[in-house]
DNA sequence: CTAATTTCTTAGCGTTTGTTAACGAAAGCG
DNA sequence: CGCTTTCGTTAACAAACGCTAAGAAATTAG
């Protein structure tokens, strides 16, 4: 099955005709290392399926720092969700960490499909709900647990692949600590692999 | 207009017949102070519109602490979103902070309406999207800014009403700090009302 | 393959936070 | 209305974090 159709199929079964309507919108795109899929301020809203490579999402802070908040790998859907949903300039950037291949389509095409096909509307609902519970889980982790506990939870999770492909300073930002502090936490955890989990 | 219909109307215009289908499911409920709408482990999934009063949402932590992560006031929709969407036991509790009046309906009734009425499915999508961008904004605030900066942002926001009706130790948890630390931050900010914002 | 750049670690220092505890104020309850 | 409980502030101490800087290690680019 087409990788995008397979992605959607995890949420809804798409009739052939509906799929073809989306397929007609797809455009391949290659990103070099460090090239952008979205830059802060962008108003041309696009969605993409990542076929090969890896990307990071980050927010620029007033002091010039770029705070990385998320990563995308193969068969992830990427977009500036806030920009698309509000139809506003993007507050964030999405940038390739490696040479990356994408399948891109305009967000406006998706909203047209929402109007035309109830099955797409359902997909849109399930997709938003899926991301919502993931984001809420991550927010509550930030509010409930210490940086060290969050790192231990990351180690114990299936997301360990994040660690493998991503520079550690970006993982640090993902966990909400500075690179220096993250290095100390790593040393601490390596010395004492078991508890504490709080 | 009925307050629930007015709430939904901010997202979609509901035909009379569709509205009546939902209206038939509504049940009023009163909560005393400290009474629960959802308790951790609950499997009977319900949604409610808050008509009068206030509630807090909190996660129980392994050490016994209850970490408050959200508040609900008049004309807010409340539910254990993770529990409803996953059809799993609730990981969190929702508890009345004041005597509270609710209009309750089963989450299963909503999913039936999703099946029966495309306009409800659209409402469900927009509702999830709306909550997603709110949650993502809050997560990125946690990752980007210091506790003091988050408190200053809260002061500058329209959410100042949170401060008024809610015990400060719960606001502290909402910001991701302990009550003692929050008290110090408040004193610091009161001494120096302007910067720093970082 | 080598040179340049970036990344990771470690250290020192000042600041902030968490914890515990005590006291006073405020609010709930009978 | 008075009693009890909860809540907010402050203090003291230990632990953790952010920042700066320097050296080592790894990666990238030519």
Automatic annotation (TrEMBL), chains A, B:
Gene3D superfamilies: Jelly Rolls (2.60.120.10)
Species assigned in the record: Hymenobacter nivis
Protein name: Crp/Fnr family transcriptional regulator
Lineage: Bacteria, Pseudomonadati, Bacteroidota, Cytophagia, Cytophagales
InterPro entries: cNMP-bd_dom, cNMP-bd_dom_sf, RmlC-like_jellyroll
SUPFAM superfamilies: cAMP-binding domain-like
Domain Cyclic nucleotide-binding residues, every copy: 29-115
Superkingdom in the source lineage: Bacteria
């Amino acid at each position: 099955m087409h990788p995008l159709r397979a992605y959607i199929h995890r949420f809804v079964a798409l009739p052939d005709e509906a799929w073809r309507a989306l397929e007609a919108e797809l455009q391949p795109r290659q990103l070099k290392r460090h090239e952008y899929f979205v830059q802060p301020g962008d108003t041309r809203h696009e969605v993409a399926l990542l076929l090969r490579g890896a990307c990071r999402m980050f927010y620029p802070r007033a002091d010039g720092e770029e705070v990385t908040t998320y990563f995308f790998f193969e068969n992830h859907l990427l977009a500036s969700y806030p920009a698309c949903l509000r139809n506003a300039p993007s507050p964030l950037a999405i940038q390739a960490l490696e040479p990356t291949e994408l399948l891109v389509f305009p967000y406006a095409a998706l909203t047209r499909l929402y109007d035309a096909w109830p099955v797409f509307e359902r997909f849109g609902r399930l997709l938003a709900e899926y991301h919502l519970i993931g984001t809420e889980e991550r927010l509550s982790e930030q509010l409930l647990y210490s940086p060290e506990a969050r790192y231990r939870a990351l180690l114990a999770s299936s997301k360990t692949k994040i660690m493998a492909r991503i520079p550690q300073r970006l993982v640090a930002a993902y966990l909400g600590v500075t690179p220096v502090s993250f290095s100390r936490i790593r040393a601490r955890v390596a010395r004492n692999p078991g508890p504490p989990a709080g």
